[in-house]
Amino acid sequence: MTDGPAIYVDADACPVKAEVVKVAERHEVPVIFVSNGGLRPSRDPMVRHVVVPGTADAADDWIAEHGEAGDIGITADVPLASRLVDKGLHVLGPTGRPFTPETIGMAVAMRNLKQDLRESGEIKGYNPGFTAADRSSFLQALDRTVRRALREKQGE
Asked: What is the pTM (predicted TM-score) of this model?
């Protein structure tokens, strides 16, 4: 789409799609929403929707295949975040939490531990609700991340 970074969004159940578009428009960065379907198409030429088959991990696989170092990935899926970090993408969760080479190992370990505890019945599988503070944190983190990605692409 452009020579600069693109934003790849794991769009199924992503609560910050509108915020991604808002920040992307401000910085003129293309956005690719990847999902199993059900997204309303955008008239914005900088926003693209990719619909993948409804198989497990199809969206994750597409994003991991097409995202490149210096791009930005948005996902709550820790295994996908790990794949993207390994490829050199800037990765954020929908609460603005960055996944980095320094933090991804602990994020994967915690995810696996919680999954084991849920499966054994030690804890319930509830996720905390998404708050206005989460949305605000995400907007700030994405703006910083886009600015950093643009500077890095210009410095190449």
From this structure: 0.87
